[in-house]
Design goal:
3 helices, elongated, single chain, four-stranded antiparallel beta sheet, 257 residues, mainly beta, 14 strands
Length: 257
């Protein structure tokens, strides 16, 4: 995307509240009207590239997802403190890793309008947490599968209630049989490791920050198996910031017939 700097706005960029896989990015632009975009990249991914090259590649990447630069919630104005997950959508941060924050002006068509501002940051080590997780509004039921009329799906709806709202936690379901088997010769800590290993790179899809605004709905257990009718399960939760940060929290639930 060829472009020329048409806006002399500069950005003071600092990383704040840096945790293992979360951070805030404070942006103070010299012009309050300049629209700007921000992202975070691992230094290992951008070796040998100038900030301008990284920014222009990011624009191409976003264009691939058909971003609407005129209305996107990923474009900001004015002084902002942006959360890496909830504002910037960066979910793949790893602990104790070198990153660079990139901030640059962008017009409504997706052309870069300013020089690129950067800030270096290293994520923290994973710390153990005193966060607790409870489950409320637990409901069970069944419904016809939207694709397959002859199939019935069993679900559990619930609201996880973490005691803090600035740390990630994982939630899922395990059958009581599987849990008893997994912990017969081991501990909850080993079971948590198995859950993390099973989830693999997709674990962040099951991780949340704060209490959700509505019930979550689960149709499968942590292994991806359909929930079975009339069966004992546990709702499970634990803090997760790159590795487990809390003990396992669980609540018994019995699926509908």
């Amino acid at each position: 995307p060829g472009f020329s700097v048409t806006d002399d706005c500069t950005f003071a960029v600092t990383a704040e509240n840096v945790q293992s896989i979360l951070m805030d990015v404070k942006v103070v632009p010299s012009s309050s009207t300049t629209r700007y975009y921000a992202t975070i990249k691992a230094d290992s991914e951008t070796a040998g590239k100038t900030p301008a090259q990284v920014a222009d590649e990011q624009i191409v990447f976003e264009d691939g997802f058909h971003i609407d630069w005129a209305t996107s919630k990923q474009v900001f104005t004015g002084e902002r403190t942006l959360n890496s997950r909830s504002d910037l959508g960066v979910t793949n941060l790893k602990s104790e890793t070198d990153y660079t924050v990139y901030v640059f002006g962008v017009d409504t068509k997706g052309y870069r309008t300013t020089e690129v501002a950067t800030a270096k940051v290293k994520t923290a080590a994973v710390k153990q947490s005193s966060m607790t997780i409870a489950f409320s509004n637990v409901e069970t039921g069944s419904e016809a599968d939207s694709q397959d009329f002859f199939k019935t799906n069993y679900f559990v709806k619930f609201v996880p209630e973490p005691s803090v709202d600035n740390e990630y936690y994982y939630v899922g379901l395990v059958s009581q049989n599987d849990y008893d088997f997994a912990t017969a010769f081991g501990s909850d800590a080993e079971f948590i490791k198995e859950v993390i290993t099973t989830a693999g790179d997709n674990i962040m899809l099951n991780c949340f920050l704060g209490k959700p605004l509505q019930q979550l709905k689960a149709l499968v257990d942590y292994k991806g198996n359909d929930l079975q009718p009339d069966t004992d399960y546990y709702l499970i939760g634990f803090g997760y910031m790159g590795s487990a940060t809390t003990p396992l929290f669980k609540t018994a639930v019995h699926t509908s017939k």
